[in-house]
Amino acid sequence: MRPRFPALPEGLAYGGDYNPEQWPREVQEEDVRLMREAGVNLVSLGIFSWVLMEPAPGAYEFGWLDEIVDRLYRNGIHVDMGTPTAAPPAWFTRRYPSSIPVTRTGMRIGTGARQTACPSSPEYREATAAIARALGEHYRGHPGVVMWHVHNEYGAPLGECYCDTSVAAFREWLRRKYRDLSALNEAWGTTFWGQRYGDWEEIDAPRASHTAVNPAQRLDFARFTSDEHLACFRIQRDVLRELTPDLPITTNFMVTNCAAMDYWRWAAEVDVIANDHYLEAERPDNHIDLAMSADLSRSLGGGRPWMLMEHSVGAVNWQPRNLAKRPGEMRRNSLAHVARGSDSVLFFQWRASRFGAEKFHSAMVPHAGTDSQVWRDVVALGKDLRRIAEVRGSRVEAEVAIVWDWQSAWALELEWRPSVDLVFRERMDAYYEALWREHVTVDFVHPTADLSGYRLVVAPSLYLLTEAGAKNLHRYVESGGHLFVSYFSGIVDENDTIHAGPHPGALREVLGLTVEEFHPLRAGETVGLPGGDRGRIWSERVRLAGAEAVLCFADGPDAGHPAFTCHRLGTGRAWYLATAPGNLRPLLARALDAAGVDRPRGLPETLEYVRRGGHLFLINHADGPVTVPGVTGVDLLTGTACRGEAAVPPGGVAVVRLAGPDGPGRA
Ligand code: GLA
Which residues are CB-contacts of 31 (< 8 A; sequence separation ≥ 6)? Predict the structure, then answer.
């Protein structure tokens, strides 16, 4: 069994990225004192320090780092050691100019940043294996180093690379996938626009052109890109596994912010899921996006506890307007991640940098120093985390799942779709938000996952669906599951080829309907639904073939035709919604009720309500107090007994250890 979490003596992990190399020794010594004051027990080191570890090819210098690791360890602070491969040294780039990535529009990128090496470059891969080996050999057996943090955020900002090395690697990847060229020609539909290939060497990466490029080629290139980065991860991971089999190895994902990686494929390769999440500061209700990111992280790990590897104390520095967090927001954010299964609260970063590109990014120790609200909040959060330490290891259970497939998102957002308003995240966010406001905790699933444990499965945007995925959904419904599908799902197969026959080919049978014609709406145009709500983005001509109409369009191009349908199949039901209503909640609530999904009623929709094992997390995102009935136990944050109800102050949080059969014993 691989280790699934760093061996910390107790409690949740608390800390963040630590860049002591930017500071003189006195500050480093102060850092450790302050870390103890805040209750920090884990820091990530060395993430961008390749040139300091290896100032010249093959000449390793770890003395400076030893001093820091030892000092931390003497003070009870453990290290998540980074391999520094997201920042190749200048000597490397100078020596191997062919490792410099090229963008889709043909720009060879500049090098004074980070992520400046092509993932397919053999020299880069070799150099990363060497530095990982040197680090692994140096730190194996050091009791202070408790896990490995390979690289940083694979896939962003560098996703696709179009250099010559990448093109050659793409051809190899295609040869492995298709074996013979006729299979590729078939899959890519190259009879269209006379694109047939007669030799592997004729195939290029799908560079920007003056018009749309073959969508199947682009989709394969997206898969290739995710695989190439994953291969880079595996190279380092395998070296480190060999040297330190007892240490967990991970890399930090950005599950809702990096569209270029297929994290379902990545998830099986890491020992513990680690995620970075940053609020989109100006987005209203951005805590709902946070919750989605946390639920997706947990789901990638099959429900096991995961690690919040980075989030921010306050403002970031890379958005148009970098808003500081409001009072209590950092605490709510941190505890929401824990509520949804994280066993760590880690930040980027420990101490704010004085120089470089990120000097305006918030940190646990701000430029203002320790006489600041930020620092007091950081210390207080450390205390909170110690109070709720007993949640470590427990699991969040969900009765509802949302189908999330990166490959479908890639396909949907290629050129020339029926409407530019068909955006994967737009529908995902809409459905997730509606469920969040209904106080329903969800897991995310791949279309081929085992769905038998869920009462309701929701597919908000599933344009691409394979035969295997379609069969899985069909079996699920036939055997009693409830499925809720949104428009423009089940349209194409894995090659972006339309499933034969009327839309939605892969879901026709399970939904009991066909779609005769799409009627995408103009920008701002809406269509009427019974009861006064209006649909945006989409209308279409649905023809029933077994399903019954629950609601029909009241006006617009499909007036009088079904907008919302239900199909009874086997012992289950499949719902279909052919537009983007202003208010999804009543429609989803029907499906939730029919599926018997248990959820609290009558709570304000601004209250986040999550069960984690035998604990109930109540996070109040509004300015008024909330009383939640039916709660008996102890609020671990305040020590207050809850006898039949829990009080949550404005902007506050309660973490209740539930009494009786619902309590921790059940987890
Ligand atoms: C990312 C990176 C960090 C840092 C933060 C800033 O998540 O991993 O190194 O740049 O963003 O928000």
Answer: 18, 20, 23, 350, 351, 365
